[in-house]
Write a structure and sequence with these properties.
Elements: H1 3-17, E1 33-34, E2 40-44, H2 49-54, H3 61-72, E3 81-84, H4 98-115, E4 119-123, H5 125-131, H6 137-140, E5 145-146, E6 156-160, H7 163-166, H8 170-180, H9 183-191, H10 196-199
Parallel strand pairs: 2-3, 2-4, 4-6
Antiparallel strand pairs: 1-3, 5-6
Helix pairs in contact: 1-4
Length: about 200
């Protein structure tokens, strides 16, 4: 089965079976979107108003900013895969609650395992803290984190500030753009890292 078909099946399964309470107030679920063969998966927090209306992640102002940053490192939206920790819009764009994240977690893990990217990029503290609860985004943004988790194969992670937070904050915007430009070198470094079998 192709990855594209596998992802389609994953989404169709969770459209019916996700127990997230946000289903009751959201217009529709917003599954991940992009290239099933992507080397990079970006994970945001939750859909906003535009995303809820269109059923696609990162289509509002933050999405446009993300597209600009991708262009700066010679990538297009079609080259990457982008998703959120939570698949339904929280009312008034409030922060997702722990139980809402928990309800959507298996859906996210299945997406990640299907794509099996070399690098996962966290957009904002919510997605980072879902994997690294003790880290603060101000301390680790732009730094490669390496950790083996039981449920996913990917072990390279890059936390960045969320594009929405940086949009109207000049210094944070500049920091995010500088951090973003590290992605090609980080990918190159991961590609050139010997596997365990090559080390021994």
């Amino acid at each position: 089965m192709s990855k594209a078909l596998e992802l389609k099946k994953i989404h169709e399964h969770w459209f019916t079976n996700c127990k997230c309470e946000l289903r009751k107030t959201a217009i529709q679920p917003v599954p991940g979107d992009g290239n099933p063969e992507a080397k990079i998966v970006f994970i945001g927090e939750a859909p906003g108003k535009s995303e809820d209306a269109q059923g696609i992640p990162f289509v509002g102002a933050a999405g446009k900013f993300l597209a600009e940053m991708l262009e700066a490192i010679h990538l297009k939206r079609e080259d990457i895969y982008i998703t959120n920790i939570v698949k339904y819009r929280p009312p008034n764009n409030r922060d997702p609650l722990p139980e809402e994240k928990d309800a959507c977690r298996e859906w996210l893990l299945e997406e990640l395992n299907c794509i099996n990217p070399l690098l996962i990029v966290f957009l904002g503290r919510h997605s980072m803290n879902d994997f690294f609860p003790l880290e603060t985004i101000s301390n680790v943004h732009g730094k490669l984190l390496i950790k083996k988790f039981n449920k996913i194969n990917t072990k390279h992670f890059l936390p960045l500030y969320h594009p929405a937070a940086a949009l109207y904050n000049g210094s944070m915007r500049e920091t995010l753009m500088q951090d973003f430009k590290k992605i090609p070198k980080i990918l190159e470094k991961i590609n050139n890292t010997p596997t365990r079998s090559e080390i021994f």
